[in-house]
Amino acid sequence: KWGRKWTTNQVIREQKRKDIQDVLRKQGIGAGSKIMIGSYQKAVGEVMQKLSKDDWDEADWLAEVWNTTKAPPDVQAELAEKKGRDYCRAFAKEMWQKCGAHVVMMVAWKDGNGGPMATIHDFNDTLNDGKLFPDGLVIEKHWLNYARDIFGVNNEGQGDDTDREDGPPRKKISRGRKRPEITLPVLDDGTAQLPNVLEMRAQEKKDLLRTFLTHHYCLVSGQSKATVPWLSITENPQLYFADQYFPEKIPFKEPTKLTYGQVTEILHFWRQRQKHTPHDIFRFKKWKDFNGIMCDPV
């Protein structure tokens, strides 16, 4: 909930997230699976039982520090990705219920890699007879430039053209019940980076999977609007990418035909690769042209 205060337990969960995930992984419990939902608290308890008094004292002290100042940048970035939209929605609802006010929120933050992210949240169409603010797209480019400025991103020579590929990573305007589309952060070599997916809903994860693969297919084909040949890849994925880039036990399918658990496992697999080889998360080795001929990377 927005406005919450950090507790000692919450600090420990943040600091020991990797240990908690290791406990679940050793038990064969995949991230985002139904089993994980019921097993997560037990894993937390197992990790907490191993903590010393000094660990608890430090967590208690950190909770006070985070509440009086702010949490570390990596924690802030993760919360912004996981909870930012929910915080804004809760604030908009409370402003309407208590003050009768309509609000549109412009939000900018740094992601886990220190890059700028920006979005505009508008939930007014969900408030009784409210309607969306019609000029969000008009002000978006100014907000994105502001995000560049406050986070120290060099904007020379870019002017107001926020559609450039070298602009800041951003989320498109969030309108009411619709989930904002994500423009993925991209490294210098064009490798897209995946955000934290722990608390994403099923459709959000499938959209992210589609966006990520489409981005890399556009890279290999040299076409900015290439269409991924899902069926062709499904029939013979080895023609298109090496085995190392995809979980061994999960079949390649068009995202809507994958289960929630399968999508979660694929994204988790890539997130692990991203931690160790951020420039080599996934890549296609071939693409199919309009004549059905398999081509080398452009």
TrEMBL record:
Residues 154-179 are annotated as: Disordered. This is Uncharacterized protein. It comes from Scleroderma citrinum Foug A.
